[in-house]
Amino acid sequence: MDVRKRNFIIMWICNFLVAGTMTMVMPFLSLYIETFGDYSPAYVQKWAGLIFGATFVSAFLMSPIWGRVADKHGFKPILIINSLGLATSVFLMGFVQSVESFFFLRLFMGFVTGFIPTSMAFVSSQTNRKEAGKMLGTLQMGNVSGMLFGPIFGGLLADVFGFQYTFMITSATLLAAAFIVFFGIYEIRKVRTERKVVYSRMSILTGILKHRLMLNVMIVTTIIQIGNFSVQPLLSLYVAELTSAKDVAFLAGLTFSAAGLGNLLFARKWGKIGDDIGYEKVLSILLVLSFVFIIPQAFVTHLWQLMIFRLLFGIAIGGMIPVTTALVRREAPIDIQGEVMGYNTSFRFLGNIIGPMLGGIISGFIGIASVFIVTASLFLVGFAFLYIARRKPQQDFEDFVATQQQTSNTLT
């Protein structure tokens, strides 16, 4: 079997395992906190939010650093370090006795939550530019599949074996992913560019923030996650408003999974279309479709209507991550692709942090339905920014960053 094909299959399997294990604990997060003591519902909800968000804060800070290290030393060591780190933190979570300990372990977990973005950067670096969208879309199917099935298996394991053994089983699965990468992956090292430029962190970050297309890609990446996470904590409450059924948690899970199903079905297709007609064009289409499919969710009167529009929204949003990642892969020089993708991942985690806070604030003032309208408007703003960037003259990102580095060298 071709090395690149074998690497891709292994990465797909590991993405499924890691994404699944990362979401296994979500169904019983609040229930696990309640086992630490006799706490009020308000106390449990507050700490559940803090513990959930802690991982994203540290991951936001670490992603570019992991990318920079991967550019120098290869992606395989980073994949192994991250999976071992995840396995260790999850294992220790099964033995915590206080919310503070749980919080700090989740915070540490964020420092090593780089497996999935690093795997995307690795596959991107090993893939021909002309089919990057299709391959990244296919890889995302493994990620989304794990996220869909993870909570189901997590809830089942917790009911059968209890919380502690669920953490141990989850840790063992992450450890298995580390061994699969160690023995199965053969990394084809990148051919360095002839331009002997050593890019500083500041020149790369300045280049991203000043380059029109790259900045827009980063903004859109944040908007995608805000769109996902602004509604997620409120979905069960919204479902409860639409139905009188008793099994609200189950129905909320189905509603949330509807978006994941749409994502799963169309991620590869959108990536392939991006390879064929251009990533900017496909990204523009997806931003408009997301706007169109979110707005009706604010006005539904029955649960089945909400599920249909969540499915359609998932279809639209499913192509955005592989398309934006393929755009970064196309624009970034080989020498710094890992770090640039690390910044792209940081912007994604920034959306994970902003989304729940924004949704909570808006719903608290003007209701849950208004969250859909505000989120939809963000996708429209993203489309406007991308449209303006496409109308202006193209900028070569490699030349742009090299200029920033030369300017920095001159000043120092």
UniProtKB/TrEMBL annotation:
Q: Which SUPFAM superfamilies match?
A: MFS general substrate transporter
Give start and end of each Major facilitator superfamily (MFS) profile domain.
7-394
User: Which Gene3D superfamilies does this chain map to?
Assistant: MFS general substrate transporter like domains
Question: Can you tell me where the transmembrane regions are?
Answer: 12-33, 45-66, 78-96, 102-123, 135-157, 163-188, 209-228, 248-267, 279-300, 306-328, 349-366, 372-389
What do the Gene Ontology cellular component annotations say?
Answer: plasma membrane
> Where found, per UniProt?
Cell membrane
- GO terms of molecular function: transmembrane transporter activity
Give the keywords, sorted.
Answer: Cell membrane, Membrane, Transmembrane, Transmembrane helix, Transport
Q: Does the keyword Repeat feature in the UniProt annotation?
A: no
Major location (coarse):
membrane
What topology does the record note for this protein and the membrane?
Multi-pass membrane protein
Q: What is this protein called?
A: Bacillibactin exporter
